[in-house]
Amino acid sequence: MKAEEELGNLLKLKKLSLSTAESCTGGGIAAAITSVAGSSEYFMGGIVAYSNNVKTSLLHVSSDTLEKYGAVSRETVMEMAAGAMNTLKTDCAIATSGIAGPGGGSQGKPVGTIWIAVAYKNESVTVMQTGDNGRAKNVQNAIQNAIDLLIEILK
User: Fold this and answer.
1) Count of domains forming the chain
2) 24-50: pLDDT as tens digits
């Protein structure tokens, strides 16, 4: 069974709804989730927030957070996940923000640095994915890691 199918089964079993807030994954998590037949029962929608303006206006990420920690940070993805849950009225959310590459990295945040947050009710868990395996693989790994993390939290 694919992870997105397992996630769907868990969400249906627990009668939970899901939303996504994606930056570097560009809607890939939403695409994986909606590839499962019947996902409309639990998936409410997703926001691809590539720009900071979208992060602040639709996901209510604080401009102070973006200024202090940057878009690629634990704090930002936590606020993105909470914002998705609030905006789309869901029980849980997945959020990603990172540097997929090949450019855009820095010494403190090299290419391949991707923050993932999952939020469920009032708690959120974050992980930082590191290592540059090329843009497509960095994004694919983040999609898989995000889905796996929510499965882990819901179990």
Assistant:
1) 1
2) 999 999 999 999 999 999 999 999 999
